[in-house]
Each structure stands twice: as C-alpha cells, then as structure tokens.
Amino acid sequence: MQATQTMRKLTIAKAMAEAIGQEMARDPDVLVMGEDIGRLGGVFGNTAGLLDRFGAERVRDTPISETGFIGAAVGMAAAGLKPVVELMFVDFFGVCMDAIYNLAAKQSYFSGGRVSCPMVLMTSVGGGYGDAGQHSQCLYATFGHLPGLKVVIPSNAYDAKGLMLAAIRDPNPVIFMYHKALQGMGWLGTVPGSITRVPEEEYEIPIGKAAIVREGTDITLVWLGVTVHHALDAAKALATDGISAEVIDLRTIAPLDRDTIRRSVAKTGRLLVIDDDYRSCGVAAEVIASTVEAGVPLKAPPRRLAYPDIPVPFSPSLEHHVLPNAEMALAAAREILS
Amino acid sequence: MNGTGSNNHPRLWMYERMVKSRHFEDLIKPAYLEGKKPLFNMAKGPIPGEMHLSDGQEPCAVGVCAHLRPTDTVTATHRPHHVAIAKGVDLDAMAAEIFGKETGLSGGRGGHMHLFDPGVNFCCSGIIAQGLGPAVGAAMAAKLRGRDDVAVAFLGDGAANQGAFHEALNLAAIWKAPVIFVIEDNCYGISVPKADCTAVPRNADRAAAYGMPGIHVPGNDPDLVHEAAGEAIARARRGEGPSLIEIETTRLEGHFMGDAEGYRPPGEVARLRAQDPIPAYRRRLLADGFEAGELDALEQAARAVVETAFARARAACLPGPEQAFLQVFVERAV
Predict the structure, then answer these.
(1) Quick one: pLDDT band at residue A289, thresholds 50, 70, 90?
(2) In this structure, what are the phi and psi dihedrals at residue A264, rounded to the nearest 5 degrees?
(3) Would you call A75 and B326 a contact, using CB atoms and an 8 Å cutoff?
(4) Does CATH place domain A211-337 in 3.40.1010.10?
(5) Which residues of A touch B242 (CB under 8 A)?
(6) Distance, in angstroms, between A68 CA and closest chain B CA?
(7) Taking CB atoms and an 8 Å cutoff, what residues of chain A touch B75?
(8) What's the CATH fold of domain A8-198?
(9) Tens digit of each residue's pLDDT (9 = 90 or more) over B233-259
C-alpha cells in the first residue's frame, strides 16, 4: 500500500461507509437498505452520512422484516439494481435464510447464468463484549458452506474499503461480514490494529485472495477478522523467542484462497488456524483439510484453535475462557513448535 | 399487452393460453409416468423429481397475465406451468428444461420448479411464499427507475400463512410498490384443507391489515379474474400501490403426480372435473357469439405449438455432465 497525501486513518465502519458512498455516486443502480441504516447510519456505523447525501429513495430504512426486505433485494438485483443490504447481526439470518441460500445463491445457477444477483449483504459477527449467544456468533462456516455465495471479512479499514467496492461491483451475492471487535464503534471497544490508513481514491481488494500480513519461515498462522490481530500479537511474541511466524489474513471465506495457504505451509511446514467460529465442521477444518490433502509436507500435525462447540455464554468469566485470544494462539503455536 | 397478441380479443387470448397450458400438462402426464410403472419411483423416467400440475388453475394465470407486458415481472410457485405459459415463457425452452435437456431454460439445472426466463421476466421458486419478497423488489426497481412496469407474485392459499406473506405485504404497502399478490385458492395445502389451517375464511380480508385493497374473485372464472386483475394492475401502474387478489380455483390433480389423494372427500374430484374451467369457458364464448370454427382452429394451433415443444425437448441432448459445474456464479464483465 502506497502512502499518498489523501490517506487518513479510518475505522472499518467509516471505510465501509466511504466505499458505499463512492459507489453510489458512481453508479445510480446502487442503493442501501436495512434496519436503522438511514437516520441512525447503521447500528454499527457503516452507512453513516449516506441518507443526507443520497436521500431516502436510495437509503431505505426497512421494517424489521428480514424475510421481506432481503427477498426484495433479490428481486431488485434480478432487475439490475445493486442493493447493499444490512442484516445487522449474523445471528438473525435464521429468520430469512431462504432468501439468502435458496434465492440469491441459486439465481445464477437456476437461470443458466442469465440472471445475476448483484447484492451485498452486510452483517456483523463476533462476540467478546457480553452480548450472549444470540448476538455473538460468527457462523463463517454456515455461509462458507453454501455454493453461490461469496463471503468476505476484513481485518482492517484498508481492506474493508477495497473489499466493499469489489463486493458491490461483483455480479453475485456477497456476504460482507464485519467483526464487532474491529468496527470502531466507541461503545464496543476496538482492536487498534483495525484502524488503518485508507486512501480517498477508489480501489478494490480482489475477492478470493488472501493476504500475507507478516512474512515468516517457521510456522503459518491463519485466520481472518479479529483473530488476524491475535495472530499478529502471537507472532510478535514468537519473534522474541527467535521464531519466525507467517500470518495469513484470509479476507475471503468463499472462495477460499487455498493456494496462498498451501504455499505458505509448504515453506514453514507448520500450521495453526485460529477460528472464532464453532470448532466442528468449520472453516478451520477446511483450511487444514485443503492443506493436508494437497500433500503439503508437514513438520508437525496441523492444529485448530477454535471456539468450542457450545453457545456463546454471557458472563465475561465464561466467555473469555472460551473465546480464542492472542495468549491462546501463542500457547498453541509453541506446542506445535515444541 | 399480451391480451392483444396473436388473438386480438383478450377473451380469445385467455382461452388459447388455457388450452395451451392444459395440453402442456396433458403431455407431461404420460411422459412423467414413463419408467415409473408398475412401481412408482420418482427418480425414474425422462422427467424425474416432483411434478406439480396446474390443471384447473388456468383462469388465475390467464386472467392476470392478459394485462402484463414482457417488462412486467412475475414470480410463481412450485406449481408454475400455467403461469409461465400465460406470461409468455419460451415454450420450447421450458419443455426442454422439464426434460432436463441442455436446450432448457437453464440447461437442466433447475427443472420444473425453478423456471427462469429473463426474456419475459418470469421466475419461480419451490419454497412456499418466497417469491413474494422478490416481486416487491422487482416492483421497486421499476418504480425507482420511473417506469410503470408492475410485478405480480402468485401464491397458493397455504402460502398466506407464511411469515413471508405478511412481511412482503407490509413492505409493499409502506413503499407503495407496484405489485399485485395473487392467491390461487385451490382449498388445499398439499393435503390439509384450507379451513383447517387458515384463521379467516377469506384471505382477501387479510389485505385490510396492510391497508391495501383485497379482492375476492369467486367461481374460477377467467372473465372475473381479468376484470379484477385489470383494476389492480392499472392501479399499480398509476402509482397507487399494491393489491391482493384471492381467486377461488380448483386443483384437478393431486398435489404432485403420484399423490394418492386419500385426503379428498369421496366424489370431490368428479365434482370438480364437472366444473373444469376450460370447457366451461368454451361454452360461454360460444354463447357470447364466438364461432365454433374459430375456437377449434385456435385450440388446434395451441396444441400443435405444445406438441412441437415436446418433440423438440425429447429430441434435444442431455447436458454434458461437466455442465454441472458451470454458472454457479455470473462472471464479472471486465
């Protein structure tokens, strides 16, 4: 990333809003809708300022009717509009999943590629702030499992802007996940590393490409969203032991950039995946399976540090005991290296 | 409008489409059962999977679609053939799709419950009531672009008990979307009678909850449907918002082919068949002064088109197996 005069430090929320606003200015077919995205600017800030700039026709507050408005977004997308839709919490998808996995995800296939579905579904993920089990899930694997959907999640504001521009311009449905611990909302607490310099100019981060955010030679640490920052913290600590850790930020869950993971593990011979989604049948398992079945030579068995197969509890003493963090990542990495 | 197409009288147009639709189903029946006798196995024969026939429900489709243009959108259900034919879906490609052929609407990826024809803005979904949201969206796309196109969502009476129905009606009402919700009330949700699962005798009354007109059309009558739909569609085109139309219709076949229909009261099917809307409409047209010769010729031509579509569908190739991997995503234009 080249520093320019037009760079400022932004939160992910502000970077998302900037990207949406730029694309709305460029493309009259783009509109935004969802709960509380108008006057409030989104519960997580990602549509702030858009109502004043573009008006209520293109920035539509909806009733609390996810089945209705996500279904409507599919119909708008079939007709050539490009709706950017807020689902607020990924935990809410249970009330509207048909529109996502049976309609949006299959529109291209069932039309023989003749009807596209250029919509973005923004949804917050992640816990760590005591909101308990119906507002703290990640569900990466739930969405990553479904053909016809692309799924992205930024770990920082620079990627958030570029991924959002790529998502809106993609003719397919893109689930744009954003992690609450990174969003930059004052009331949530924010991992400082997510607030980065962001150019004012438009640019895209290609969907389906992971990033090597720290190069190393002894072990590969893989994940996305907030745990990228845990991995980076662990890598710094390992460096003091003389261990060189490589950190991969997946950035896209589907399609998964298996090549980048395999190349890295081929170099390091060791793999730790840090997953804040449920452990069983998860994307972490997919990352490990993809590496092992490709015959990448390993110096130690690959490992998952994942959220256990339990609902997210409320009490901090319970939640922080089970939510992956940098210390756990460091301990797991040391075990692999020992 | 479709109603001024090949036959420039809307009543003849409706009759012709009803005959075409019924003949389509009549050709499906033996084709579907090929390979499924003596032991019924849904996976066997040239048309595998479920098959939901529309016999008896044709008046709903033609009475509404007579008012529609290709640029208007229709979302239909798991029982879509009559609506697709009334909307003007490419008949050859539709028949080929049902046979799973590479010349089908989606090259055999969708089958009979998932028919998409962007040429006339038609699609359907196999999940109850889930076409309603997309219809609201299509209607809003027309409205936001300053066009007077409308969208029509067809649904069964069972779908009116889905949350999606209520969410879509509320959303359409607050956004004044140019959309018409058309309930084909065939009195059954698969096997369960409407009276056993619907809190109100008339679903049209539910429109009041969303501040929109609710029109009840009795008698499975194409002319009455045509009249009611004409008013609702004109209203939507004028920018006055959505309507709900509930049409009393009849399901002359089972929920799906192979349905033993043990849940029907004795004599019901015979009674309904005696009210078959297509011969009834022919009798009315004759009584109203249309020539028998003209109706005969129209029927003959309609059946010939369907027969050609089936012959072409049967002659077409199955898709190469590797085609399964294509078109999961639309390629982004460079």
Answers:
(1) very high
(2) -65, -45
(3) no
(4) no
(5) none
(6) 5
(7) 75
(8) Rossmann fold (3.40.50)
(9) 999 999 999 999 999 999 999 999 999
